[in-house]
Design goal:
Blueprint: H1 4-19, H2 24-35, H3 45-57, E1 62-66, H4 72-78, E2 83-88, H5 91-103, E3 110-114, H6 117-127, E4 134-137, H7 144-154, E5 160-164, H8 180-194, E6 198-207, E7 210-219
Parallel strand pairs: 1-2, 1-4, 2-3, 4-5
Antiparallel strand pairs: 5-7, 6-7
Helix pairs in contact: 2-5, 3-4, 6-7
C-alpha cells in the first residue's frame, strides 16, 4: 500500500506522461541541474505546462521571471510568449541556464539578468519600457514582499502575478513560525489581500514537489 507521498508522486508521473509534452530539451535541463548539484527547486513538468498554459490563456507577450535556476521553467515560458526577462542570483546557475536555453532554441527570446533580484528589478523599473503581462516569482521567499512591490511597478491592469511555494508544508498557517521563508510568504499574502488593486487566490498542491502551493494575483 502506497503512503500519501508515494501516491502524490505516482499521480504526478501519470499526469505528466499522459498530458505533458516534456521534450528532450526540458528533460536535459532538469538533468543538468541535478548533475551540477543544483537544488531541486524547479517546477514539476505539469506545473511548467500550467505556467505556459496560463501565459497563453492570458495572451501574454512579455514575462518576468524572478529565479532562473537552470532555466527549466524559463523554457516553458519562452515557448509560450515572445519575450522573457529572467533574473538569477548565482552566476554559475546562470551559465548553466544559458546553455539550456540555447539547447532548447529559445535563447533569442530570453534576457537573463545576473545578480540580486532586488537590484535587477530596480534597474528594470528605472529602465522603463513595455509592461510585463505575467510575473512568475520563484526565488528567495524572504524577499517576496519586495518582489511584489517591484512587480506592481512593472505590470499593467490585467497582468497576472504567480508566486510559487506559498504553502511550505503547511507552515504558512503559523503566525509565529521563525522561518524567514514562511514569514516572507505570509507578508506577501497579507500585502496582496490589503491592496485594492489586486484580486487573488491560492491553491495547495501535492506531488513530486511535496506539499506546497501557489498564489495567483490579478492586477486590476
Amino acid at each position: 500500500m502506497y503512503d500519501s507521498e508515494q501516491r502524490w508522486r505516482a499521480v504526478d508521473g501519470y499526469l505528466a506522461t499522459t498530458l505533458v509534452d516534456e521534450d528532450e530539451a526540458l528533460v536535459a535541463a532538469r538533468t543538468s541541474a541535478r548533475d551540477a548539484g543544483l537544488p531541486a527547486y524547479e517546477v514539476a513538468p505539469n506545473q511548467g505546462a500550467l505556467l505556459a498554459l496560463l501565459a497563453r490563456l492570458g495572451g501574454a507577450r512579455r514575462v518576468l521571471e524572478i529565479g532562473t535556476l537552470a532555466g527549466y521553467s524559463t523554457i516553458w515560458l519562452a515557448r509560450a510568449v515572445e519575450h522573457v526577462t529572467t533574473i538569477e542570483l548565482d552566476p554559475g546557475y546562470a551559465e548553466l541556464a544559458e546553455r539550456n536555453l540555447a539547447a532548447a532554441g529559445v535563447a533569442d527570446r530570453v534576457e537573463l539578468l545576473v545578480g540580486a533580484a532586488v537590484d535587477r528589478l530596480a534597474e528594470l523599473v528605472a529602465r522603463g519600457g513595455p509592461a510585463y503581462d505575467l510575473v512568475f516569482i520563484d526565488a528567495d521567499k524572504p524577499n517576496n514582499p519586495a518582489y511584489l512591490a517591484a512587480a506592481l511597478r512593472l505590470t499593467r491592469p490585467g497582468s497576472l502575478i504567480i508566486a510559487d511555494n506559498v504553502v511550505r508544508d503547511g507552515a504558512v498557517v503559523d503566525p509565529d513560525c521563525p522561518d524567514d521563508r514562511v514569514r516572507g510568504v505570509r507578508e506577501f499574502l497579507e500585502l496582496v489581500r490589503a491592496d485594492p488593486r489586486l484580486e487573488a487566490t491560492a491553491l495547495q498542491t501535492v506531488g513530486v514537489k511535496g506539499w506546497d502551493g501557489f498564489a495567483l494575483v490579478l492586477v486590476r
